[in-house]
Amino acid sequence: xxxxxxxxxxxxxxxxxxxxxxxxxxxxxxxxxxxxxxxxxxxxxxxxxxxxxxxxxxxxxxxxxxxxxxxxxxxxxxxxxxxxxxxxxxxxxxxxxxxxxxxxxxxxxxxxxxxxxxxxxxxxxxxxxxxxxxxxxxxxxxxxxxxxxxxxxxxxxxxxxxxxxxxxxxxxxxxxxxxxxxxxxxxxxxxxxxxxxxxxxxxxxxxxxxxxxxxxxxxxxxxxxxxxxxxxxxxxxxxxxxxxxxxxxxxxxxxxxxxxxxxxxxxxxxxxxxxxxxxxxxxxxxxxxxxxxxxxxxxxxxxxxxxxxxxxxxxxxxxxxxxxxxxxxxxxxxxxxxxxxxxxxxxxxxxxxxxxxxxxxxxxxxxxxxxxxxxxxxxxxxxxxxxxxxxxxxxxxxxxxxxxxxxxxxxxxxxxxxxxxxxxxxxxxxxxxxxxxxxxxxxxxxxxxxxxxxxxxxxxxxxxxxxxxxxxxxxxxxxxxxxxxxxxxxxxxxxxxxxxxxxxxxxxxxxxxxxxxxxxxxxxxxxxxxxxxxxxxxxxxxxxxxxxxxxxxxxxxxxxxxxxxxxxxxxxxxxxxxxxxxxxxxxxxxxxxxxxxxxxxxxxxxxxxxxxxxxxxxxxxxxxxxxxxxxxxxxxxxxxxxxxxxxxxxxxxxxxxxxxxxxxxxxxxxxxxxxxxxxxxxxxxxxxxxxxxxxxxxxxxxxxxxxxxxxxxxxxxxxxxxxxx
Length: 725
Hints:
By secondary structure, this protein is of the alpha+beta class. The chain is 32% helix and 25% strand.
């Protein structure tokens, strides 16, 4: 027969106190809300049989009685979980609350007094004497008579709630450092210092495989609390000493099965670590005496250790079995979050590597470059498809390309890489900027139909691109754009202008919207500064796009000819990039230097039979003036003669011969009005047809053809040593 007093004969305080007496061992506080819960908890958590306090530690029920003025009349907070909660008779209940919660809780207490309706199971924080907080489930129960006040029952669900909240918090980030930090902060609830050490392969995003326990290499990924640590102690980013890595690996991988271990006291810790250097690296201080090491294990056949979590405690707080169970449960629940962050880190590294490999390395002999790429977020899903590139073409010109592929993540990065490499190949083959954009336009359309691979489900329609070719001899910029923002050109006198072409809807537009790509040529005297950029640099929610471009123009115009470009580029980005960056920021600055007049020579010859001899004579005289030595004195005039002979034989109109003294040799160019492409046949040198091309092929390091509005130019690169003059 149930002996619980009826509501009519007992107050709510008596009912809760009765529960405390009935279900708490030896009259202590209860282990749960009822017998079933208590038994279930005992079955789930192993306890040391010789620890009588172990059962009391898991008691979670308390009660506080209040009068009409919300002051404490009596209380039962004897369970160890309520240690530090002081509720002396006559004190205000508000003293137990964080200041920010006082108005809300007071209002609820008074509402129960006035209405007589209970308020059940509110999650509430209570403040301990030392300033720490305890999370409880709080119920407010009215007395049978209003003048008798209230009863507040408290169920300290802190540990289970903490496990749930910790797992939820740890799973909110895909950054490996943030994930490790969240885990360490959660583990701090069980100790004085918590650290997370990850296998180096996990930290860097590399693949993890089964490893011999002694070969694991650990790096400290997280450490709490944040304070000044002794010299030699391992802090985040530090590699643990090899001896420490081996010892920890052996500890968690005993008998080929990862398992937690507890080292109970300082003497045992020092004996296990052995070396004073290892002790300095691992032991957080004199007060820390015991440590629990819990492996981060990726389930599988066989399991793989991702790292080790460490929780350090003072000597007067030994680890109990139930606490070790909770620590293992939390680490086990969150190990897969660490592995997800590792996989994300690998993808992020791959995307950024691709992105940064597309950034120009150097400008060559005729221009100086500097570039800045600043992703919107550290998240690979936020990495966009911005790219800039600058590379010398075989014919002596330099290509400068900027593009912005729509979207973010791996699909955008794959499309970006494909478009960038295709643009480079087409420009190197001698195609004009508008022709390159026509091919990219078709490629974007094809990418939109992809059904497999990295671009599956991704559309690059609407991507933008701008192609500029710099001729270092004529000091001209030839420009074509597909929906991209106009470059900024700052002349040597400081005057800045936008290099605008006729608008185009972008790459992959519908056929009805497509128009021929406009091509324009601009003068770019030596010393001019060109800025190519993407919209992330000039777009700001507080400014119009025109205002953003105007700010960029003003910023670039302040770069002086003697300023180093890399610091100047970083300064421009820091001055213009929005405070809350929503898109990637990309900037390329190119200082156009070109060739000096004395390093080039150009002749225009009529297409007559005497043209080869005249060209050979001009070339020989120039080489002597340039103090050319070696085989080039004979090879270059022969080469020029053969190219001019081909132009006279197969083309019409005037012939242009140009020689350029470069940093590595000589560049020979012969232009004509023909539209046929010279091709090297398999015939020998004695064959009448194609003899000139065989001579060209044998005397040069490389040669090729580029097309112009009036015909073509055959160019050839010759190794030569030239002096001054």
